[in-house]
Write a structure and sequence with these properties.
single chain; 526 residues; Rossmann fold; Alpha-Beta Plaits; globular; binds guanosine-5',3'-tetraphosphate
Length: 526
């Protein structure tokens, strides 16, 4: 198959949700209906159970699972579908943001009773930054929830995106009868609570066909017709372009647990979701159809097996064809690297691949060369953009707790930062190292992994900070003045860039006001 054909048939996406909305259940059902797995229960939840903050086995178990389910690829109707997993715990939100840099579209799951929740809002902001096309699956229709129109309003207002229903629920909660597929004018009937396969009753029928009453009660028929007249009156007809540009989100309703509405979602998704899109780099856009290979690392998993110092770097292929055993340029180190056993991921298995194409994710065994954001090319010195670190909000000094293990600690901290577990800042005033994270759990993870994987011991000391932000200015005078006045609050990040550590939100807003010629950035990419 030609490169163009391979690209056209790929769909690389992530399912994202606020914890508990049904991401794991929906992902599993997509795999089940896609024929990638044969029994429910094969995809383990990668959630860290509530209250497990100090349960390190749980953290390790989660890491193990998240390697196995990082990418779940399968063939469906001649297409290659790649689902990228995202961590379930909000302390790992930054991992999710990074995963979103490697997808071409997303499906957002919303619980019909809870509506739009905090994490959904944050994830949507990241999608908006990249104009990622979004589809919404309103889940748990088998339970009582909010009214469908109210939910659509809520999604529009809270997620700041126009919506267009492409499926409509018939009844809800105990009286849930099925969904009407607006995209294909098909009625899918809900036959029972324990329906575990996709072979429910699906009838191709026009909304105004008299026969509709043979399938659902006259009352439900009337309600459905009235609802859909309103839908068609309120929402403009679905236009593919507005979905692909990230302006309009098609909405589906269903129940992942009872397999309902999932098939409608999957079938519509594979038809309309985008194939790999061009990627941004400093200086130019990379088109997937370019002959030469390019790709970037968006995730690193290290030391899965403590007996082997193994790391897997996950490479998203952006253009060209990746070939096993062919030398490529690792742009950031200038080294030429060859990979004899690159892994492809199919559902819950991995295998060695000879070729991979744009949209695919491959796992590269790494001896410590890669860090997040690194590029692999056939010689061009590309720097992919859009893979930022976000301003951390939790901080602690990190100190060596075992003087004999200084080197181990330095190496461990260095590698964990390359993996993107947290960010490291060095105080300009006293040279002390500060770890910044987005979640409390990361501090435990770092301490535990330093000890178990690097044989090093660390201890934390409190530091009271509000936020870290990157600073830059063309105005040397103002910058020098700022440096003098804020000397105790300045640090450098791992790349040596200057960072302002604000004690309080007041101090930050004061600084922004008093130093108008300095730019304060809340992501590492500017
Ligand atoms: P997450 O990955 O988004 O965090 O959610 P997950 O799929 O783990 O689902 C969270 C809970 O919601 C699970 O119940 C799951 O069974 C339930 N659920 C998912 N989809 C539906 C649905 O369509 N209808 C109903 N009624 N429930 C749904 P749990 O009790 O927390 O876990 P479990 O013991 O069932 O695994």
């Amino acid at each position: 198959m030609e490169l163009k054909e391979e690209i056209k048939r790929r769909r690389t996406f992530a399912v994202i949700a606020h914890p508990d909305a049904g991401k794991t259940t929906l992902t599993e059902k997509l795999l089940l209906f896609g024929g990638a797995i044969h029994t429910a229960g094969a995809v383990k939840s990668n959630k860290i159970k509530k209250g497990a903050t100090s349960d390190f086995m749980e953290i390790e178990r989660q890491r193990g699972i998240s390697v196995a389910t990082s990418v779940m690829g399968f063939e469906y109707k001649g297409l290659k579908v790649n689902i990228l997993d995202t961590p379930g715990h909000e302390d790992f939100a930054e991992d999710t943001y990074r995963t979103l840099t490697a997808v071409d579209s997303v499906i957002i799951v919303i619980d019909c009773a809870k509506g739009v929740e905090t994490q959904t809002r944050k994830l949507m902001e990241v999608c908006r930054m990249r104009n990622t096309p979004v589809m919404v699956f309103v889940n748990k229709l088998d339970r009582s929830g909010k009214d469908a129109f109210d939910l659509l309003d809520e999604i529009e207002n809270e997620l700041n995106i126009q919506v267009r229903p492409l499926a409509w629920p018939i009844g809800g909660g105990p009286s849930f009868r099925g969904v009407y597929n607006l995209y294909e004018s098909k009625l899918s009937l809900f036959l029972g609570q324990d329906r575990q396969s996709r072979d429910g009753e699906v009838v191709e029928i026009d909304l105004y066909d008299d026969k509709l009453k043979e399938y659902i009660s006259p009352k439900n028929v009337d309600a459905l017709r009235t609802d859909l007249e309103l839908v068609n009156g309120v929402y403009p007809p679905f236009e593919l372009d507005t979905y692909l540009s990230g302006e309009v989100a098609p909405v589906f309703f269903g129940s992942a647990l009872s397999n309902f509405g999932v098939m409608e979602l999957l079938d519509c998704f594979v038809q309309i979701a985008p194939s790999p899109r061009p990627s941004k780099t400093v200086g130019r856009m990379v088109d997937p159809c370019e002959e030469k290979l390019t790709g970037f690392v968006f995730k690193i998993h290290a030391n899965i097996d403590p007996n082997h110092r193994d790391r897997i770097a996950f490479l998203k292929i952006c253009s060209g064809t990746f070939e096993r055993n062919r030398p490529y340029l690792h742009v950031d180190s200038g080294k030429s690297l060859k990979f004899s056993s690159p892994n492809a991921f199919m559902a819950d298995k991995k295998s060695i691949v000879d070729f991979a194409y744009p949209g695919d994710i491959i796992g590269l065994h790494d001896t410590g060369n890669f860090k997040i954001g690194d590029a692999l090319t056939e010689g061009e010195k590309l720097k992919f953009t859009g893979i930022p670190s976000f301003s951390p909000e939790l901080f602690r000094y990190i100190e060596n707790a075992d003087p004999m293990k200084f080197k181990q600690l330095a190496k461990g901290v260095d590698q964990l930062m390359d993996e993107g577990v947290a960010q490291l800042f060095t105080s300009k005033m006293n040279g002390r190292k500060i770890i910044g994270t987005v979640g409390m759990l990361q501090f435990d993870v770092i301490q535990y992994r330093l000890e178990h994987e690097y044989g090093a011991k660390c201890r934390y000391e409190p530091i009271s900070l509000y936020k870290a932000c990157w600073i830059e200015s063309d105005d040397r005078e103002q910058m020098e003045d700022f440096r003098k006045r804020k000397y105790t609050n300045l640090a450098v990040d791992k790349q040596g860039r200057e960072v302002f550590l604000a004690d309080t939100s007041y101090a930050l807003s004061q600084a922004i006001e008093r130093f108008p010629k300095i730019s304060f950035h809340f992501t590492s990419e500017f």
